[in-house]
Write a structure and sequence with these properties.
197 residues, alpha/beta, 5-stranded mixed sheet, two-stranded antiparallel sheet, 5 helices, 9 strands, globular, binds nickel (II) ion
Length: 197
């Protein structure tokens, strides 16, 4: 979420919209999942680059389940926890975990170059697909996944990035299947995936 250092009151105000977004989104997703008149419109095609600077698209992940999370490497709290829980959930699946790809997409393409992304993600799990791209490519995929993000200026002249914090489970055809937050315990994510896979 944000690593600005506002007063307690301002921090609450900053975090509140993200919480509301997450709750509102989960409700919407549940409703959309029950619809029978078409595919759930979350996710979609993307073109990004991996930690080695190679082009990667959504089609690279067909045939695998994906756990997808959007964030940025300077994030002090939500992103590290989210990635840690995703990696732990996959480990808990044992051999079935081989069917699950972990995908981390930056919302801060200016600072998160392929090399920065690779180094960051490999601290959690070397198999994480750490994806970045042009600001336009990132904006496109974020829109498809309904991810909100915005730069938040800091006193020192730098910036943080406020962002929606949702872990998406996508099926082997690239369709939305379930969602969690960065705080969902790995045991809970693994149990849900076990039923889905
Ligand atoms: Ni974050």
């Amino acid at each position: 979420m944000s690593d600005t250092e506002p007063t307690g009151r301002r921090r609450l105000l900053l975090l509140a919209p993200a919480g509301v977004l997450a709750v509102g989104f989960a409700g919407t997703a549940g409703w959309l999942l029950t619809r029978r008149d078409g595919p759930v419109p979350i996710g979609g095609p993307f073109e990004l680059v991996d930690g080695d600077g190679r082009p990667v698209t959504d089609r690279n992940f067909r045939g695998k389940w994906m756990l997808v999370y959007f964030g940025f490497t300077h994030c002090p709290d939500a992103c590290p926890l989210g990635l840690q829980n995703m990696a732990a959930a996959r480990d808990l699946l044992g051999p079935a975990g081989d069917q699950v790809a972990l995908v981390f997409i930056t919302l801060d393409p200016e600072r998160d170059t392929p090399e920065v992304m690779r180094d960051y993600a490999s601290a959690f799990d070397t198999s994480v697909a750490a994806l970045t791209g042009s600001p336009e490519q990132v904006a496109k995929v974020a829109k498809e996944y309904r991810v909100y993000y915005a730069k938040a200026p800091m006193k020192d002249g730098g910036y943080s990035v406020d962002h929606t914090s949702i872990v998406y489970a996508m099926d082997p055809q690239g369709r939305f299947a379930a969602n969690f937050t960065h705080e969902t315990p790995p045991e809970q994510i693994a149990a849900r995936l076990q039923k889905l896979i």
